[in-house]
Specification:
Order of helices and strands: EEEEHEEHHEEEEEHEHHHHEHEEHHEH
Number of strands: 16
Strand content: 15-25%
Distance between the termini: 73 Å
Strand order of the largest sheet: 1-2-3-4-6-5
Number of helices: 12
């Protein structure tokens, strides 16, 4: 550990600023973090701040770079100063001075306050974080480490994202390598060996944060099955399932998830009026009153092509009348895929089983 004793004075020799170490806060991939006090310097840096030190110049450079690039973005921990400090001519320590967040990181905060957040509060904070992450993604960068330990809680309860030590920009069209990440919070595809970290993988982690707030749990990931039991709106459950479900179905970037969250008071989607199954590609979902195989034979007899999953060529999805999922909007993967296709401009008709049976003469 990079141990600095309380009372030690650390100096930015170029800007003539000095900071006094107060107490140890923790350590991670970057190095060690300390609560500090600015002793001499400038009013642009608050007196109470955080001093982070590392011996890894590359990590320090990334933190300093993204701190400068995204300075003053409301939902990001602000970086005030960065410098190298070599006491007594020894090997330099690379230092960052950043905003002090009174309530600590979200992981520790949820450990002390385990009650689920009201949906309105959780959604508000996610929108703020997504606006900040959208700025990163629009610059071609990925964060790769959006975990409860890297999201911090201000005195007013607001959330801010920090720790850009493994953030990277893409080079042209080349994706960022998945060679640095927190394994416990990485998407399943990354855990299973995917070679590249996509912006969608950042969105997966934001979705996990959103679910953690609604569940009041920060120490582990929330499963898609658990999402269905959260006390939140059907629309929010749909957004969460898109984030933490299959990688290929996740929102591709922060802006897409942000747009989904900013849609308010969505009207319930009505079953479409379909006059014939002839020439249509049909997918079944939910529990039917008849056996699935029988329904498929009836559809083929009526001139339809039966598909096993929703795709860009699907015309109709038949919803089982015996399934409560459509009524409760606890959407399974096929209905999430319908939403995904709609976002891409491909509208798929949703037909209840009773209407399907009428179309096939039953």
């Amino acid at each position: 550990m990079l141990w600095l004793r309380p009372g030690l004075i650390v100096e930015d020799a170029i800007r003539r600023r000095t900071y006094r170490v107060e107490k140890f806060l923790g350590q991670g991939g970057f190095g060690a973090a300390y609560q500090a006090i600015q002793v001499t310097g400038t009013s642009s840096v608050p007196r109470a701040c955080v001093l982070k030190v590392t011996i890894d110049g590359a990590t320090w450079h990334r933190e300093a770079y993204f701190g400068h690039l995204l300075r003053h973005v409301p939902a990001l921990v602000e970086v005030y100063d960065s410098f190298a400090w070599a006491p007594g001519g020894r090997t330099p320590l690379y230092c960052l001075i950043s905003e002090y967040m009174e309530a600590g990181d979200l992981d520790a905060y949820l450990g002390r306050n385990s009650a689920p957040w009201p949906e309105s509060r959780a959604r508000r904070e996610m929108v703020r974080l997504l606006r900040a992450l959208t700025m990163m993604h629009e610059s071609g960068a990925v964060h790769r480490d959006i975990t409860p330990r890297n999201v911090f809680v201000a005195s007013n309860g607001g959330l801010k994202l920090g720790d850009f030590g493994i953030a990277l920009h893409r080079l042209g069209r080349r994706e960022v390598a998945a060679d640095a990440f927190a394994p416990r919070y990485a998407p399943k595809a990354i855990q299973q060996g995917a070679k590249h970290w996509r912006q969608a993988d950042d969105v997966h982690q934001i979705g996990q944060l959103y679910a953690a707030l609604l569940a009041g749990v920060g120490s582990r990931k929330i499963t898609a099955k658990e999402v269905k039991n959260l006390s939140c709106s059907p629309h929010t459950k749909s957004v969460l399932q898109r984030c933490i479900g299959l990688r290929r179905k996740c929102f591709a970037r922060a802006a897409e998830m942000l747009a989904a969250l900013e849609v308010r008071d969505q009207p319930a989607r009505k079953a479409a009026s379909v006059r014939s199954l002839a020439g249509k590609r049909v997918v079944f979902t939910g529990t039917l009153s008849i056996r699935r195989g029988v329904a498929q034979k009836l559809a083929r007899k009526a001139g339809a092509t039966v598909e096993s999953r929703v795709s860009h060529s699907t015309d109709i999805v038949v919803l089982g009348d015996q399934s409560p999922h459509w009524i409760a909007e606890k959407k399974g993967q096929k209905l999430l895929d319908v939403d995904h296709e709609a976002e891409r401009g491909h509208r798929i008709a949703l037909v209840k089983e009773s209407r399907f049976l009428a179309l096939v003469g039953r």
